[in-house]
Write a structure and sequence with these properties.
By secondary structure, the chain is of the alpha/beta class. It has three domains: 161 residues, NAD(P)-binding Rossmann-like Domain (Rossmann fold, 3-Layer(aba) Sandwich), CATH 3.40.50; 155 residues, Dihydrodipicolinate Reductase, domain 2 (2-Layer Sandwich), CATH 3.30.360.10; 86 residues, 2-Layer Sandwich (Alpha-Beta Plaits). It has 14 helices and 16 strands. The strands form three sheets. Strands 6, 7, 8, 9, 10, 11, 12, 13, 14, 15 and 16 form an eleven-stranded mixed sheet that branches. A three-stranded parallel sheet has the order 3-4-5. The protein starts with a helix and ends in a 12-residue tail after the last strand.
Length: 437
């Protein structure tokens, strides 16, 4: 269902690599019915002899179809189609991260009751097999945290800002012209797309129900070229990260711009590429890197799911790999999601201050009274014709609630103009997500 970028890519990969896929799956996988609003690509994709419909429900109700592949996107229609496919006893493969993040709990319960599979590898990080790696390859581990660049559009924008000193709006316009960003880029630049994917990764990592509504989400529109430059000066790079971590208080689930040390491998993931860093107790940190979008990279994940479903067609449903890695009756419904105010990170702070004695002392006093210590300070010379200078502070780790209180007080200082830019800092090393070596 759907012959857009990913649907077309899936048809192409199945046709081109059909013999190799059959050798791996143990039987051939054939497209028997295609539904799309626009069927003009049928000939181009070599699907002339395949049943064609403009109504996706015709695929779902086709008795000859064993596996339904949903590649139309969106919430409402896709949910109806997938639930109907499950009711009809058909397995489902989908690339729809928004649908899984919002309605996955309902869909997986229906699939479990009907004894069918719902596979969704392509929903997170495109062609990177991160779900299979976490759900199966790391099954012996206690996963501690996951941090990922899981939206290529945002990563392209931040890379261009760093490499060429360009402004956010300028690079966003180019990303739209290149097709990396939609006409309405909100999902990408505000972090919503990344939050959908992180919600899925957190459930697989920690064995909890999907809880998209609990994910803290912050975009990159407020990042200025000077922030990128100051981060470099301090030895960091800014990345738009999705981070989930198990703590004594519960599970953190957050998407926001983050300073990370420039020597980290993930700090050097540039352009539209994706990367996910997973820290587990037995294996340690592992990094998964690759194309997070595109026709054939995403199709690679869709077809891999098709092969998994094909292999499992005759398997006892109770012995299949669980949708969210943990057995459905073993999901932890009591583990709380930590409120962002209770999360501890270090901080990068940038503000414009009047160039006069005592200003830095006032700011550091307010921070100290909130229990916040300073690691580094950058204060530039006053430019000709200006009354204010940029002041940049790097702090040690502190609870967000304390930082919020301190920034509210700093904002009231007459010597500080235009508010404070705040970016969280994580170190992402083997000792812990926020620990230095």
């Amino acid at each position: 269902m759907g012959l857009g970028t990913v649907g077309g890519g899936t048809a192409t990969v199945l046709r081109r690599n059909g013999a190799e896929i059959a050798r791996r799956a143990g039987r051939g996988i054939e497209i028997s019915h295609v539904a799309a609003l626009n069927l003009d690509r049928i000939t181009e994709l070599g699907l002339e002899g395949v049943r064609q419909s403009n109504d996706a429900m015709a695929v779902v109700n086709d008795p000859d179809v064993e596996v339904v592949v949903e590649l139309i996107g969106g919430y409402d229609l896709a949910r109806i189609l997938i639930l109907k496919a499950i009711e009809n006893g058909k397995h489902v493969v989908t690339a729809n991260k928004a649908l899984i993040a919002h309605h996955g709990n309902e869909i997986f319960l229906a699939a479990q009751r009907r004894g069918v599979m719902v596979a969704f590898e392509a929903a997170v990080a495109g062609g990177i097999p991160i779900i299979k790696a976490m759900r199966e390859g790391l099954t012996a581990n206690h996963i501690e945290w996951v941090a990922g660049i899981i939206n290529g559009t945002g990563n392209f924008i931040l890379t261009e800002m760093r490499d060429k000193g360009r402004a956010f709006a300028d690079v966003l316009a180019e990303a739209q012209a290149l097709g990396y960003a939609e006409a309405d880029p909100t999902f990408d630049v505000e972090g919503i797309d990344a939050a959908h994917k992180l919600t899925i990764l957190a459930s697989i990592a920690f064995g909890v129900p999907l809880q998209f509504d609990k994910c803290y989400t912050e975009g990159i529109a407020g990042i200025a070229p000077e922030d990128v430059a100051y981060a470099e000066e301090l030895g960091y790079r800014i990345k738009h990260l999705g981070i989930t971590r198990r703590t004594d208080r519960g599970i953190e689930l957050r998407v926001h711009p983050t300073l990370i040390p420039e020597r980290r491998l993930i700090a050097n993931v540039d352009g539209v590429m994706n990367a996910v860093l997973v820290k587990a107790d037995a294996v340690g940190p592992t990094l998964y890197y690759g194309a997070g979008a595109g026709a054939e990279p995403t199709a690679s994940a869709v077809v891999a799911d098709l092969v998994d479903v094909t292999r499992a067609l005759t398997t006892d449903p109770n012995n299949r790999v669980p949708h969210l890695a943990f057995q459905p009756d073993a999901l932890n419904t009591e583990l709380a999601m930590v409120d962002m105010a209770e999360v501890e990170t270090a901080y990068y702070l940038r503000m414009q201050v009047r160039d006069q004695a005592g200003v830095l002392a006032d700011i550091t006093r307010i921070l100290a009274e909130s229990g916040i210590s300073i690691e580094a300070v950058i204060q530039k010379e006053q430019a000709t014709g200006t009354e204010r200078v940029p002041l940049v502070l790097l702090t040690h780790r502190v609870r967000e609630r304390s930082m919020n209180e301190a920034l509210a007080r700093i904002d009231t200082l007459e010597a500080v103009a235009g508010g404070v830019t705040r970016i969280r800092v994580e170190y992402l090393n083997g000792q812990g997500i926020g620990n230095r070596e």
